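name: query_chain
kind: protein
chains: 1
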Amino acid sequence: MTPEENLVHLSELLDKDHERPSNNKYPEARDFTAEMLDLLPSGIYFTYVGRVSNFSVRAVQSAAAMQATVVVALIKLRTEDEATHRAARRIATKTGKTILLLQRVSDDSLDWAVMGGYYVSVDRQTREIAQRIADSLGGPSLQGIELSPSEAATSVLEYFDRLGLTGEGVGAALSQRRDISSIIAFAAASSAAGLSAAETAIIAKRRALIAELKRLIADPSTKETDLHKKIKGNYWIFGGRYTGVARASIMPMDRYDIPLFCADGSLHIVELKGSYITQLIKRHRQHLIPGEEVHEAAMQAANYIRQLDEGGAAMETIYRNSGLNYDLRRGRATVVIGNQDFVDIPEDPARQLGAVTRGMVDQTIRTYNSLINRVEVLTWTDLLDAADRSLRFEEEIAENLAADAPAEAGNVHPGGSVTQGGEATGQAEATIF
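structure:
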């Protein structure tokens, strides 16, 4: 499709009641734009700006807006063009988002046209997105904003302050981004050694946390609350498929330990239990079955997601009107409980049964997981071992990056390509989940 045809189709998808209070008015336009720009739908956020004074609020008012890479602002008033551009430039500078401005061709027209936009030009990804917008929609090109490293750092810190984010929370959020290498490269900007050192520092801090957690789960005196405190804010341990943390109490009377957002907007509840569970599994006749505490924890999680299935539709509407986009139905849950090392079931000569091994414990839990739907039981040992393996992989990447790094005179560009004397000498990409 030509840019003109794309704009016509987008205008048709935007033929809506723009004044209606909702944060999900434009799903068709979002999906079309995402396909056009080769982005995930979650990377696009449409918002209607009735007054320029509300622009900054609209651009970051919800979880969907925060997650988006591109904010498409539908501008109502044609008398505020200059103020609109100032506000758009300020938001792009403060948040690093690409801001695309659309405006009706005339006050009584249903057709929308591009009135420009802004992006931070130091980042390769945003430059590519801006070019795709120009190729797909035409109109005035988006303007790149040149920032020095100190200006960028100041803008980011101000943005974090406005959101009330702590350093711990920012670190947890950054650790789950796919483009963490670009972020670190921009922060470390001047050398490959700086990039490698930044990544190594993150890995070292995480490895220290894993070591401390392993020490805790090996201690019979460790309480469930001790593990809660230690793992708080370090949700990267659960993997890189999560984009954020929801509020702890979504349904009345239920309070979740760690409610995580998946990339598709659905909810994944993590229920943490203690590590000292002597009857993680037990004998039942000639076989092994999970212990009572495991079954109770799994049913607790199952009841959480049942409540979400039954009441999720109504609660979604309530939260949406408050600016929170939750997809509460058909969620999943993980129960983290026990440590295989505390299982001590001796041999039973009378029934000709040998002592229970670590492999038999694992097999019993796998069998249990295969029989229950949407709830997974995971031991603390398995969770931390998986996180440790992931860190080992990232450590190898950082070591290879350091070994391949050019001399001090070389530069690392935000996209990750290493250049020296103006010529590309290699590609250094790394992702920390």
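note: Residues 336 and 378 are 5 Å apart (CA to CA).
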